[in-house]
Amino acid sequence: MTANLSYLSCPNMEEVRYKSIVDILHERVNAFPNKEICVQRFQGGGRESLTYRELLERSTYIAKYLVCKGIKAGDSVAIIGPNSIEWIVAEFAIFLSGAVAVHIYKTSESFSETLKLLKKTKCDAVLIDPESDKIYISDMESYLSDDESRQQDTLLTVLLQTSKLTTLKSIDEVVLTPEEETVSLPRLQPESCALIFVTSGSTGNPKSVEMTHLAIVNAPYTSFIGAGSDCPCHTVYNDRPFCWLGGSPLFSILNGNKRVFVDTAIGMRKENILSIWEIITTERCESAGFLPYAIVDILENLDSILQFDYKLYSITTGGQYIDRKLTGIIGKCTEKMFMAYGSTEIGFAAVIELSRDMEEGHIGSLFPGYEVKITGDKTQCLIHGELGEILIRSPFMLRRYRDAPELNTASFNNGWFRTGDVGIITTESKLFVKGKSNDVIKRGGLKVLSSVVESVISKLPGVREVVVMAVPDTRLLEEVCACYALKDEPDITDVDLDKKCEAVLGDNVLGNKPSYFLRFDSFPKLTNGKTDKVQLKRQVLDRLNLT
After folding, report:
1. Domains of the chain by start residue, with CATH
2. pLDDT at 114 (0 to 100)
């Protein structure tokens, strides 16, 4: 019976490196001091780069400034701003000072919203690039100059970029005295917390995910993510936000891969995909990390991209549902295409090479050191083929959620992390992700997976985007609502979608067809490009007159 249990593992045969991120940086500098490791490209053709030696020298200087200003080992220092060379220098300065780097994604909201996150994560300092947001800068200056604020807490604030809109000092304007230049930096313990990822809050509740130096340095996916492929020496293009796990420059720097990037705001605009491909061609990148929306942009501009006569070795994607149509780029502008499965909390647990006959939902092979099991409502391990929650265990995942005992209790079960994903392990030992546990809509006595319904509707002609969610129902407790946006075909109606869905999903009694179809011109978005499902849910309930 044990052999039939839904459990998978991949042993880790590598020796654990008992070192910190700073230790690995020193090793890289000693071995390759003049290697260009980071390249920032700008609209209009500008370019700025950083070698290992420059990274160590510049970050050490800022680290000494932080220490002289009172930052101690274990203190929390936030880093906020778009992708830039200065962001990278600042993060390594935080590590060198012995502090914990707190990654916060700057939203378009007021400085008061940022301040709430800074207080929640108990930050003693912030290294920030407010860009050209005059209101944000004004609010920040008002807070920092207010006598009452200074008495309540002292928030050391340094800009990542020099700005004419404020008198606040930037990291390029920091000047040390001769005595300050001789200050000693602390020796880091590998088990200590290195950084905190503050999740995006797409569900309305940002969480603080703690990762240790040991977990980052020894992560088995470092080589793959750093290179963006299964070839460890590649130059990789990746414009995801640095404050995301999948966008963090740490993995390329620790692994020795040149990382080419732009500001995420540039990469997110669909009209820039040809400019991005020109950068990839000019920098001779062999691999690239793209979110699914960018692959859609590539497909829509494939003829123009092929005019560059430059083919990547591989493109790696993930983070959202992947269907077969995205594999249309394989063999044309890239030889291979991979999908990585993971999250901020678990890191990257598995990867699969995609093909045109891919099995949708199959996430491939586990990285070494990861274990997976499928559990039921009472956390018992299910047998092969039964749908349940995916639990993962690994020494390379989060240590805990910071200052969230109730969340930690709910998220961990005897060392296993509850991912919130639902899936199955087949008799062939293949792991399939079917959706999120909160995507399981319990309509009466039947369970409807919103991801399955979304997959069907997204493939219908004319549909640009779809989100399926649960809405309250007095009789069945939950009903299924499909929110959709169209491309350029306004003649499609709710009745058309209803009929087409019923042909594939069955009815809305014993089948999976939605009972409600709501058309939107577009969905509300967070600043990171993801759909704001909290705001969307409010709009849906309002339109349906539900509470």
Report:
1. 21-28+46-188 (3.40.50.980), 221-365 (3.40.50.980), 444-543 (3.30.300.30)
2. 87
At 52, is the secondary structure helix, strand, or coil? helix
pLDDT of residue 313: 97
Which tens digits make up the pLDDT trace of 203-227? Answer: 456 789 999 999 999 999 999 999 9
Sequence-ordered list of residues with C-beta below 8 angstroms from that of 90, at least 6 positions apart, any chain: 59, 62, 79, 127, 158, 160, 171
Biggest distance spanned by C-alpha atoms of the chain: 77
Helix (H) or strand (E) holding 322: none
Selection from 143, 135, 94 nearest residue 119 by Cα? 143
Q: How does 201-222 read in b/e, with b if 16+ C-beta sit within 10 Å?
A: bbeeebbbbbbbbbbbbbbbbb
CA neighbours closer than 13 Å in the CB half-sphere of residue 230: 13
Report pLDDT digits (tens) over 151-201.
Answer: 566 789 999 999 988 989 999 999 999 999 999 999 999 999 999 999 855
Residue 289, burial from CB neighbour count under 10 angstroms (0-12, 13-18, 19+): buried
- Dihedrals phi, psi of 290, to nearest 5 degrees: -130, 140
Write the burial class of residue 53 (CB in 10 Å: 0-12 exposed, 13-18 middle, 19+ buried).
Answer: middle
Q: Which are the contacts of 233, defined by CB distance < 8 A and separation ≥ 6?
A: 227, 256, 257
CA–CA separation, 472 and 451 (whole Å): 19
Per-residue pLDDT at 296 exceeds 90: no
Mean pLDDT within 24-51: 96
The whole model's pTM is what? 0.82
- The span from the CA of 501 to the CA of 254, in Å, is 48
